[in-house]
Prior knowledge:
Blueprint: E1 4-6, E2 9-11, E3 18-19, H1 25-29, E4 38-40, E5 47-49, H2 55-79, E6 94-101, H3 107-115, E7 123-128, E8 133-137, E9 140-144, H4 146-151, E10 152-159
Antiparallel strand pairs: 1-2, 2-3, 4-5, 6-7, 6-10, 7-8, 8-9
Amino acid sequence: MEGMMSDQNFTCPMCGTRFNPAGQEACSACPLHKGCHMVCCPACGYTTINTNHSQILELGTKMIGILKRQARSLTKNELKVSKYTTLAEVPHGSWAMVSGFSENFPRVRQEQLQAYGVLPGKRICVLQNSPVTVIQVEYTELAIETSLARAVCVEAVGVNP
């Protein structure tokens, strides 16, 4: 929230004027005053939500908090599953985070894989291991030779959610 509320004073995020929103005559004369949770600056007229009284904002904030907690716990659980060294070792139906490429892997081949989205920090799903390794990078499926899959280093592996 851009404006600051301390006790009952509000600082306008637009012009910086400090005022008490409850003491505004225009707001108290408004027919929606009891159900409205807007704050109107007397100096510039900028209108914003009073975060101390908005039930929608409170609900949204709670929902975001719940979703963040679920995402953190899901990520922690998935990353605990196992650690592998190369993409070739990842079981089909699992995902891995790319950490880089093996030292002896040619730069030209690295650039080719990077053009398809096989980048450090990228999440990759292994769809098949034999006869070639089939991976999914976002919405793209790639079939790569086992020798290439052995050159892609990965950090963590988990079961697909």
